[in-house]
Amino acid sequence: MAVDSPWRQARQRAARLLRSPGASRRLAMAAAAKAWRQRDRLGEEAAELRLMAAMLRDWALRRYPEVPWATLVTLAGVLVYFLMPLDAIPDAIIGLGLIDDLALLHRSRRWIGGDLDAYRRWRGEHPDVQDPPTRG
Predict the structure, then answer these.
(1) Which contacts qualify for 104-108: CB closer than 8 Å, 24 or more apart?
(2) What is the pTM assigned to this prediction?
(3) What is the pLDDT of residue 109?
(4) Shortest CA distance to 115 belongs to which of 72, 79, 80, 63?
(5) Per the structure, how many domains does the chain have?
(6) What's the rounded Cα separation, in Å, for the pair 51 and 49?
(7) Does residue 7 form part of some domain?
(8) Average pLDDT over the chain, rounded to whole?
(9) Three-class SS state of 93
(10) What's the distance, CA 87 to chain centroid?
(11) Residue 109: inside a domain
(12) Which of 9, 23, 39, 48 has the greatest count of CB atoms below 10 A from its CB?
């Protein structure tokens, strides 16, 4: 029996979560909150994760519906992976725990960067749209 990689598990879970707008919004809020809490460790990447969370949230709320399915699964997969405490390098390992998360973030930016840029432009045209809350 083969063991799935953490990234494969995250994408599979993401595809299931995307079936529910409520679950998608909760994922977006949880990822935005963790990115906010970890902003000192994440640096500039915290803003990128929060942008991804905002894009997922706005898609789930049907404010920004023009997102290809492959982009949604990748986007949600990155956020699920980011929230997984036991991924390739467990987050509890201070100094190393977020390295795999950041590597995945950079890789995913190559895959969905154009769609993220389009969303960023859309947000600029809709100043009333705010980031997901950062409770916790």
Answers:
(1) 104/7, 104/78, 105/45, 105/48, 105/49, 105/78, 108/74, 108/75, 108/77, 108/78
(2) 0.83
(3) 87
(4) 72
(5) 1
(6) 5
(7) no
(8) 83
(9) coil
(10) 15
(11) yes
(12) 48
